[in-house]
Amino acid sequence: MKLDRRILDILVCPVSKGKLIQIDDELWSKQAGLAFPIKDGIPVMIESDARPLTQEEIESQKNQ
Question: Which pTM value belongs to this model?
Fold first, then answer.
């Protein structure tokens, strides 16, 4: 489920304060190297609930 673009424009990474991009059911912060889950359509923006992004995942989104 895609989040509304207006919500993505408002949300920022709680760690880096940078832009987030939606990849499947997660919001990725390339700056912080974290992926925040989206559960039941609600972004969970808690650092302890985020998973670290792999270097391959970060590289795959470099041009986007």
Answer: 0.90
Q: Could you report the per-residue pLDDT of 10-53, keeping only the tens digit for each?
A: 999 999 999 999 999 999 999 999 999 999 999 999 999 999 99
Task: Name all contacts of 33-39 with Cβ < 8 Å and 24+ positions apart.
Answer: 33/58, 38/1, 38/3
Mention the CATH class of domain 5-60.
mainly beta
Task: Name 34's bridge partners.
Answer: 29, 52
CA count, 13 A, side-chain hemisphere, 2: 4
C-alpha 38, offset from chain centre: 9
Please give the sequence-ordered ranges of beta strands (E in DSSP) within 7-61, or none if there are none.
21-23, 26-29, 34-39, 42-43, 51-52
Whose structure tokens read 């990849």? 23
